[in-house]
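Run log // design_07
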C-alpha cells in the first residue's frame, strides 16, 4: 500500500507563460474563444475540445462531468448525449449550464455559461451518422445512461449482440433518446495564469444584446 499524502500545502506551480490584456482580446467573445481554441489545437494538446459541463437539478444539487465540444458557432456550443442521462434530466428542469475548458499546458481556462436547448432532429441525426459504427451501436445499448448494470461483461454482451445482429452495410437509426444540445452563451470568462496568483481574468457579459468586457479580481 502506498504512503498517503498528508500535506498538500507545498504542492504548487507558478504560472508564467503569458498574460492577458483588454486591448489584446476581440470585442466579440466567440471570436476570442476561436483564437484561443485554435491555438490549443495548433499546440496539439490532448483533446482540447474536452470540457467540464456543470448542470444542476431541480433541488439545486450540482453535477459535473467531462463531455466533448462538437460544434462552435455564433449560435452556440454543441454537445451530444443520452437525453435520459443525469445531464439530460437536469437540463429538462433547469436549462442553464456552464462549460469549463482547462488547458494546463497553456495555463489557460475558459468558462462559458448560458441557456441550453436541444438542437434539431436533423442536426442530431446528421451527427449521429458521422460517428464511428461502434459508437453508434454503443449509443443504442448504453441506456438508461448512468443506470446501474450488473457487470462490464453484461454491457459487452449487449454490445456484441447488437453488433452481430446488424449488418455492416445497414444504416442504424438514431435512437430517440439520444441527440444534441446547444448552449447559447450569456457570459464568458478568459483566465490566464500569472505569477504570485495575480491571474488575468477577463469577463464578457451580455447586456441588452451587447457584450461588455470587464476585468475581474484574481
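design_07 sequence
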Amino acid at each position: 500500500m502506498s504512503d498517503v499524502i498528508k500535506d498538500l500545502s507545498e504542492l504548487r506551480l507558478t504560472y508564467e507563460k503569458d498574460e492577458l490584456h483588454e486591448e489584446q482580446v476581440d470585442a466579440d467573445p466567440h471570436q476570442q474563444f476561436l483564437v484561443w481554441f485554435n491555438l490549443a489545437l495548433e499546440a496539439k494538446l490532448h483533446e482540447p475540445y474536452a470540457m467540464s459541463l456543470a448542470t444542476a437539478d431541480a433541488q439545486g444539487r450540482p453535477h459535473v462531468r467531462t463531455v466533448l465540444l462538437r460544434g462552435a458557432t455564433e449560435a452556440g456550443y454543441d454537445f451530444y448525449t443520452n437525453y435520459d442521462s443525469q445531464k439530460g434530466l437536469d437540463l429538462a428542469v433547469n436549462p442553464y449550464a456552464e462549460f469549463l475548458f482547462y488547458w494546463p499546458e497553456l495555463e489557460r481556462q475558459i468558462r462559458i455559461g448560458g441557456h441550453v436547448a436541444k438542437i434539431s432532429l436533423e442536426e442530431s441525426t446528421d451527427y449521429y451518422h458521422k460517428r464511428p459504427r461502434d459508437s453508434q451501436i454503443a449509443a443504442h445499448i448504453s441506456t438508461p445512461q448512468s443506470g446501474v448494470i450488473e457487470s462490464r461483461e453484461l454491457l459487452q454482451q449487449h454490445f456484441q449482440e447488437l453488433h452481430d445482429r446488424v449488418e455492416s452495410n445497414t444504416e442504424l437509426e438514431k435512437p430517440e433518446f439520444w441527440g444534441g444540445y446547444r448552449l447559447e452563451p450569456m457570459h464568458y470568462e478568459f483566465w490566464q495564469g500569472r505569477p504570485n496568483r495575480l491571474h488575468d481574468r477577463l469577463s464578457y457579459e451580455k447586456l441588452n444584446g451587447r457584450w461588455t468586457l470587464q476585468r475581474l479580481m484574481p
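The two ends are 39 Å apart (CA to CA).
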